[in-house]
Amino acid sequence: MKSKIVFHKNIFFILFIFYSLGIFAQTPATSSQEQGIIKNPTNFAIKPQYGIILSHSSKVEHLTHTNPFGLELEYSWLLLKDKNWQQCNCYSKTGISFLYVNYDNPDIVGSSYNLISFAEPFFIRRNRFMLSARIGFGISYLDKIYDSVDNPENTFFSTHLSFIVHIDINAYYQLSNKYSLMSYAKYNHISNGGVKQPNYGMNFPMFGLGLSYYPSGKVIFPDRDKHEFVPGYFFNIYTFGMSKKIKEDEYFPEETTYVFGLYSLAGRTISKVNGFSIGVEYINDGGAKEEISRKGLNLDHQNFSGLIGHHLLFGKFDFSQYWGTYIYAPYKSENFYQRYSLSYSFTKHVLGGVTLKAHGDVADSFHILLGLSF
Fold first, then answer.
1. Is the bond preceding 198 in cis, omega lying within 30 degrees of 0?
2. pTM score, two decimals?
């Protein structure tokens, strides 16, 4: 309880400093937009947060009765230029943030320190009000992890370095030319993507009110014509891979194995930001091969699946969600899985990103993506 009181006092102190810096910052006599030169203005934000931990498995239920709280510091820039508008037929912003989260369980779960990159398109823009959605991905450092001797209760995390993915809804209300009040609802997921077990991961929604600051003054969004949507087909093929550790047991030492595979898609866009696809996926699972060997089974460690996907398209970003059905999987007890992918088009034909495969709420494996688009 004491840590929460100190934390909230620090929040108000930081907010005061943040506001004071804005008061004493010099404002240019004429902005670049007033001079007819459109630039992408920078933005700073401070975002205190409070939330809950969801119980998605009986293995983590005993750790979900606390309320995480944290603070996020953000640096971003609005994408106002014509080339940015052309990418998604909308205005958006992108940036990086540092998020600290205390899970209110210092002896077992501890805290996380997260460095995140994000993309955020605006769906509603009025005189003083804006509404947006955000997709973020980053690296998480966890100061308390599972240890069979010292910390056997922490079934959330087993590696200090993990990955964080979040989806947000943000609302902005302009208080003055430089300041906006923010409210936000965030759905966060942290896991190591199956690199090491146990890996149940954590799902924790967070909410809060924050302050956004534009050093250059009031942002003026240029009026631009929206282009008529023309549906089109797309054909993508991805290859992916990542290491996976199989933990030691009574008879075998810990082993590092490798998972690699590919999936290919054929899809069609149905709106400016939506598309659907079908595809197939092949995985060569070295982790499954090691487990099969340890159990003395005569089973194949490879699997083949069918995919149905939905794509959220924001310019060069593609956030995809797939429903996978195993067609051939001798060592998989489940029939279905989900795959979540975030990719970026470096050129017209070259793609890169990350993808997470999960069975229900349990992460199976995290992979780096490389792809080609036709």
1. yes
2. 0.74
